[in-house]
Each structure stands twice: as C-alpha cells, then as structure tokens.
Amino acid sequence: MNEMNFDRLKLFLEEKFYWDPKSIKISPLNGGFSNLTFLVETPKGKFALRRPPFGYKISTAHDMARESGIQDALHRAGYTKAPKSILLYEDDRILGAPFFIMEYIEGIVIRNRRPAGIIPKKEEFEKLAWNTIEALLELHHLELRESGLLRLGKPEGYVNRQILGWTDRYQRAKTDEIAEMEKVADWLKSNIPQKENYAFIHNDFKYDNLILEPEDISEIKAVLDWEMSTVGEPLMDLGTSLAYWAQEDDEEILKMFNLTHLPGNPSRQEVIEYYDRKSGLDLSNMLYYYVYGLFKVAVIAQQIYKRYKLGQAGDPRFAALIEVVKAAGRKAEKSILTEKI
C-alpha cells in the first residue's frame, strides 16, 4: 500500500469533518480481488473507505461515483441492506484515485477460507443458503420506476451487450491460448436469448459479499460490493451466483471463491428450483445463463491475472488465477456438452 498517502487523507478528513488526524487509524480490510477496502477508525466511530485497485484499468467496474450513487439510490428505494455512503471524492490528488467513504457495518464475512470458530454448522449453512437466495430475490423484486433505480441501467438489449462485452474483454485481456474459452465464447454469441427480463441486479452476489449477524451467522445484515450493479437480466445475476456456487464434486480451484461446497449447502440445481418457485420467471434456459456466469468469472480472473503479468499487481494470489480461467472454461464447455449445471 505504499502508493497510498494516508497522511494526506487524514488531513483531508480533518478539514472535512474536524477529526484529529492523530486519532485516525487506517488499515486494509481483507477482501476480494477487485476494489480495495480500508477500515477508517475515527473519534466519531468506524467507517469503510473504497478505492479502485492499482494498475491496469478494467472498464468502468471500479467507478467510485457510480458505486456510491448506487448505494444512495438503493436507500431511496427503501432497501436497507446496502451501507450508506458518507462522502465521495472524485479527484485523484489524495489517494491517487477517486474514493468514497461509507458506514462500517459490524459483522462476520465468510471468506473462501475456514476462519476458526465462525464457519457455520451444517444446519446454519442450510439456513444461510436459502437466506442468500431470498436476499437475491429481494433485489430482483425491487420497484424500479418510482424509486429511480431504472435510471441506473439500460435494460433493453442488456443480454446482447453483456455477451459481446465480456467476449471482447476476454480477447483484450488474454495472455494464454485456452481452447475451451474460445469455444464457449462462440457458443454464447451464437445462442443469445431473444426474450429478456429486467430487474435490479447485483452481478457479484456470493457469500463473501454478505455481512452476517455475529449472534446468528445465518442472518444477513448487509450486502457489499455494488460496483457492478445495474438494471438488467436477473437470470444473468443468478447465473453469476451459480458460477461461484461451487459443489463438492467441482475442481478444487473453483472452490476458492465460495464455501458453498461445505455440508449443508444445497446443490446448484436445488438453488435453481428454489429461485424458480419464488421468482415467477421462466428458467428453462438457465443453462445458458450458468455458462455465461462461468465465462464471466473466467474473464474477471483473466483481467486480474493480466495485471499481475504486467507487474501492475503484486498480490501473490493473482498468480493462480490463470488456472481459474482454465478450470472455468472446462466447466463451461462440459456444461454445454452435457446440458447439465
């Protein structure tokens, strides 16, 4: 984090909020592979700070103004599980990039590791899993027009744009020749569904983006990482979640993003059946959206791996991401051939 000038940030916070710079403590929060999150401890309590990753820029996925604005819009729509934005700074003079500060919500986050003492038991995982799908359904059922959420996206033609966009991103971020990824990209472009639904979608909905109640780990306090949220096809959102929803029989490297492979979690097919009963949508083409989800996860991994290869990101975890790309490509091609999720 030597690219960060925390002294400058502390002086800015003193000017903005009259906080004593000497009493401000800033430390990185462990998290995912994308935007960086820091804990800001102040005389007025704890806050969280978000800024883009260093190095290689990936489209608008790291747009701080947009992420902050989405959280504001969700609160206006009556949605209470998004942290409230406190301050947005769109210049790069303080931290080398725009950033925003939001409320810090105390709770437990289940990462892709097994931290001692807080891994849910089988029964807790089962309840958490269904609560997670319910939370996704809640988002997909938000009212769009009167709330103003509709203005956050362009639902018409969303599926087509996503397929063309992600296949193009893959070509631009490619570092290795992976035959399965090329085949999957061609299949996705050749089978774009004509019928579209639209809803408010998160686009990265999985366990490690949930803050859980410490007293009841199956209950969801808040949802994080709204950077890719928009209005679009909810089945694409579900497909992305299913791509992260690893099962015990999946390749080991595909289990690195989510603990859904542990006992108590339903299978992907059971998740689909539950969503099907509750959503009112036609899920007969869910295979397509699952394959899309796998391809998207692979492209995200590929983009980050390219930053690593270019020397623009030094996190040692990134070195293994090319294996994620290969495994997700294999899984997607196998799903197409077997027509099984």
Automatic annotation (TrEMBL):
<protein>
    <submittedName>
        <fullName>Phosphotransferase family protein</fullName>
    </submittedName>
</protein>
<feature type="domain" description="Aminoglycoside phosphotransferase">
    <location>
        <begin position="26"/>
        <end position="259"/>
    </location>
</feature>
<dbReference type="InterPro" id="IPR011009">
    <property type="entry name" value="Kinase-like_dom_sf"/>
</dbReference>
<dbReference type="Pfam" id="PF01636">
    <property type="entry name" value="APH"/>
</dbReference>
<dbReference type="GO" id="GO:0016740">
    <property type="term" value="F:transferase activity"/>
</dbReference>
<dbReference type="InterPro" id="IPR002575">
    <property type="entry name" value="Aminoglycoside_PTrfase"/>
</dbReference>
<dbReference type="InterPro" id="IPR052898">
    <property type="entry name" value="ACAD10-like"/>
</dbReference>
<dbReference type="InterPro" id="IPR041726">
    <property type="entry name" value="ACAD10_11_N"/>
</dbReference>
<keyword id="KW-0808">Transferase</keyword>
